[in-house]
Amino acid sequence: MKWDASFDVVVVGSGAAGLTAGLTAKLQGLKSVVIEKTDRYGGASAISGGALWIPNNHVIKGEGVPDTHELARQYLDSTIGDRVPEALKEAYITRGPEMLRFLYNKTKHIRFRYAKGYSDYYPEKLGGLSQGRSIEPLIFDLTKMGSLADHMRRATLSTKGFTMNSYEFHKVNMITRTFKGKTTALKLGMRLVKSKVTKSKLVALGEALVARLRLSLAEANGELWLSTAL
After folding, report:
1. What is the largest CA-CA distance in the chain?
2. pLDDT tens-digit profile of 206-220?
């Protein structure tokens, strides 16, 4: 039988998980394609906060967060209990940090920062950390993507032209109460002016996550088909 195309891996859906799967397959030497039923890639990930909760990863360890495999396991056991099989919890704790390190080593664009102060949802539980374990993508300039950015799903939340990550959003909300809020607002204003002068198109949160994954997929010569339903 003659086929129109042949792939080792077909990934259905172009959110962060789908793009990561397609990219990983390509980086491992397989021929992959990501298919998306709509005419925009990014899925719900593109309009999300873009934060990742992956315990004991190299980003938070580099910032001195006192996390360990054991603490993370205690936290999952105390919050999830036996609703999830033991093997899956163990796989998440073990493979999650490996996934982040793999993407960091194999790409130029997939970079994160520690979302300091974004607490675990249940910090009072055994293994919980009040300073949090979450990481978020670095702010990204869409002009680096060229025409690839034209078909990315975009967030609809208005920020009045300002680009900010979750850490900055938290601080700027305290602009009338704290000195840090005022300095953060000044930083955002300077970023806006700079982007206007340099004609950059800055995005953060879920948009930055999807953009970094999409550009990495393109540079690995991975394929993405839009308007292609399973």
Report:
1. 69
2. 999 999 999 999 999
